[in-house]
Amino acid sequence: MAEKPQPVRVLYCGVCGLPAEYCEFGPDFEKCKPWLIQNTPDLYPDLLKEAGAKDADKVSDQLQSASISGGSSKPKEEEVKRLPGGKIKKKEKQEVVIEKMTRNKRKCITTVKGLELFGVKLSDASKKLGKKFATGASVTKGPTEKEQIDVQGDIFYDIVEFITDTWPDVPESAIFFIEDGKKVPAV
Amino acid sequence: MFKKFSSEEVSAQNQVKASVQRKIRQSIAEEYPGLEPVLDDLLPKKSPLIVAKCPNHLNLVLVNNVPLFFNIRDGPYMPTLRLLHQYPDVMKKLQVDRGAIRFVLSGANIMCPGLTSPGGALDDKVEAETPVAIMAEGKQHALAIGFTKMSAKDIRTVNKGIGVDNMHYLNDGLWKMERLD
Ligand SMILES: [Zn+2]
């Protein structure tokens, strides 16, 4: 028997629901743009330029080093930056996004994105999660080539407490769930 | 086909008999051998298989209220795009150029020139009357499920008119119906 193919994860836009790469052809690209800049800045490089931001990697690098050196620094959630021309641009948010992917009724995978933005080593985090929930956990590449952690099983609601207990640098307020394609705060 | 489609169009939902369930499984496995290893996950033997009847001889195959396949009359089963996105390699692929994307996404059938232009791509193994995944230039994921009107070779040589019927595309009624409750 052939080997079981693993389901591919497609990044669906949180606004229009299409695969994010098709937002530009979707019903309202303008509305998708803020979501795209935040969730998949590499996909539409022009958007960042449009918004006047610098290289997306630099932004996240800065965030990362800030959180490592700053210790328990608060997430700079609402920090806005005034750009030449008076445009206001939000920084890439430092947040952890948890999403559950159902494979069928019983089996599902919970993905955790963004822990690295808080200076957490993903390989280490994946081991801890696997141990805590007695299940398989691995670091994988998401659709935008960003690394994320996949945990087998539905650990949707227990995971927040575990994250904040294990990595105190991650505030509860920076943890979000994706439910029915919409991003909602975990608390 | 699913341009204006909603749960109201579903005239009857029936749990099918075990024998019919076996037949559906078998024809899906024959059409998409790549799906066979995961068929037990997709169509668990213990979960009831529901077939929803819709206008124009359309049938939807559902498990746990999620549409997974559809067919017309006794035609071949085709996966929904959400399912295909998970298992992209189970279908043969044809690719349209970037210029064709917005037409496909408005429900238009796929014209030969969109497949034969430099941005398009044809798999010569594709015969006429075959379900295919419609991919697009510069995009990773399928944007439609098509049913070929002519073979890939004919599409190349004839190079005009409709090459592939657009059966189901991103943001059509079936796409929006993630569940049928
Ligand atoms: Zn979108």
TrEMBL record, chain A:
InterPro entries (UniProt xref): DENR/SUI1_TIF (IPR050318), DENR_C (IPR046447), DENR_eukaryotes (IPR005873), DENR_N (IPR048517), SUI1 (IPR001950), SUI1_dom_sf (IPR036877)
Signal peptide: none
Ranges for domain SUI1: 96-167
Keywords, comma-separated and alphabetical: Cytoplasm, Initiation factor, Protein biosynthesis, Ribonucleoprotein, Ribosomal protein
Record localization: Cytoplasm
Pfam families: DENR_N, SUI1
Phosphoprotein keyword on record: no
Gene3D superfamilies tied to this protein: SUI1-like domain
GO cellular component: cytoplasm; ribonucleoprotein complex; ribosome
Chain residue ranges for the region called Disordered: 55-87
Recorded GO MF terms: translation initiation factor activity
Similarity comment: Belongs to the DENR family.
Entry comment, domain topic: The SUI1 domain may be involved in RNA binding.
Summary of subunit composition and partner proteins: Interacts with the 40S ribosomal subunit.
Name this protein carries in UniProt: Translation machinery-associated protein 22
From TrEMBL, chain B:
Major subcellular location class: cytoplasm
Keywords for the protein's UniProt record, in alphabetical order: Cytoplasm
GO cellular component: cytoplasm
Keyword Cytoplasm: yes
SMART domains named in the record: PUA
CDD domains, sorted: MCT1_N, PUA_MCTS-1-like
PROSITE patterns, A to Z: PUA
Subcellular location: Cytoplasm
Pfam families found in the cross-reference section: Pre-PUA, PUA
Domain PUA: 92-171
Top-level division of the source organism's lineage: Eukaryota
Family matches, as InterPro entries: MCT-1/Tma20, Pre-PUA, PUA, PUA-like_sf, Uncharacterised_CHP00451
NCBIfam families: unchar_dom_2
Protein name: Pseudouridine synthase and archaeosine transglycosylase (PUA) domain-containing protein
